[in-house]
Amino acid sequence: MRVLLLAHLSPKTGNCTTAERIRSHIVAAGHTCVLCDTREFSSPSDVSSLMMQEPRFEAALAIHLFKGGRLLLDAGLPFGVVFGGTDVNEDVKDGHKRAVMEEVLHKARFAVAFTEALKEHAEMFLVCGSKKILVQP
Questions:
Q1: Which of 19, 68, 82, 99 has the CB geometry, 3.0–4.6 Å to 6, for a possible disulfide?
Q2: Domain count across the chain
Q3: pTM, rounded to two decimals
Q4: Which InterPro entries match (predicted)?
């Protein structure tokens, strides 16, 4: 399976480290994983264009509901999201971002939180199906 992994890849940050770890696990499972920086795309249509190129992607994963997940809304393939404190502690305060994050959660096949507390915050502040949110420390 060919998987697109979107993350905000500022060097030597937690996001970059997390993205590399996830990519390593996907590759170790026998799949191909293409890691892309969310800053390379200005809109979901840019990601959709990437999806149309050969070889095609079969799935996608994004880190951050807003920064990465919003870019997958028009991707036309199954996707999941990994979220953290910025999503549920800061971005939920912005009405526009919160609406986008709720749409991402609605369309995502699954969401991953790193702690039970983050999952609980998401359930408290975002309209989402709690069965979609998995906790993976």
A1: 68
A2: 1
A3: 0.92
A4: Glycosyltransferase_G1
